[in-house]
Amino acid sequence: MIGFDIAGYLIFAFITTITPGPNNYLLFSYGKQYGFKDSGRLMLGIYFGFLILLFSSGYGIAEIMMKNPTIGLVLKILSSGWLFYLAFALSKISSDFSSVTKSKVGFSQGFFMQFVNPKAWIMAITGASAFMPHFENIHINVFIFAFIYGLIGIPCMISWISFGDLISRLLKSEKANRLIGLVLFVLMLISIVMIWI
After folding, report:
1. Closest CA to 107 of 175, 154, 38, 6
2. Is residue 50 in a domain?
3. What is the pLDDT of residues 160-195, one digit of tens each?
4. pLDDT tens digits, 76-128
């Protein structure tokens, strides 16, 4: 018998991973800009960075950090700064692929972004608090928790990249690209505001 609510956990992991947030906005814009095939490094960076957050949350490290007011404030400031930069970058989506080749985001950017991504922290801590398995071995509990969450995340990330890739094929005009960039910019600004509420 599995020592936790696996059905509830699967639903929680899917909903929190598929819904909009900084990672998914970035994957969408990257898929739109560079296509599905060129997005693997970014996706792996996000995946492994988030996996570390999941493990640290499972062992209680992340929760201890978040309860420290100084660390919490620093994280909010870093998150806001990073998301504002990301919002600005996403607003510059263009249909001219050659002009932005040098600004590709790779594994390391996706990886380190997780540590200033407020949604990723909330997902990891909330998931660990509500759905950690209750076997005798803490290491098995943390592994199951992180592995399942990570497994659910893969198709969700692929979906956002594919959606961006599809949009790039359907919308070729510069006006449409500017509109999408503006929408992404506003959504990221909303994400920043939500950090401070």
Report:
1. 38
2. yes
3. 999 988 887 887 777 777 777 787 788 777 777 776
4. 788 788 778 777 776 665 544 444 444 567 888 889 889 888 889 888 988 88
The pTM for the full model equals 0.79
What is the extent of the structural domain holding 102?
6-196
- Note whether residue 1 is domain-resident: no
Q: Is residue 51 part of a domain?
A: yes
How many separate domains does the chain show? 1
DSSP string for 82-133: HHHHHHHHHTT--S-GGGGGGG---HHHHHHHGGG-HHHHHHHHHHHHHH--
Residue type, 18: I
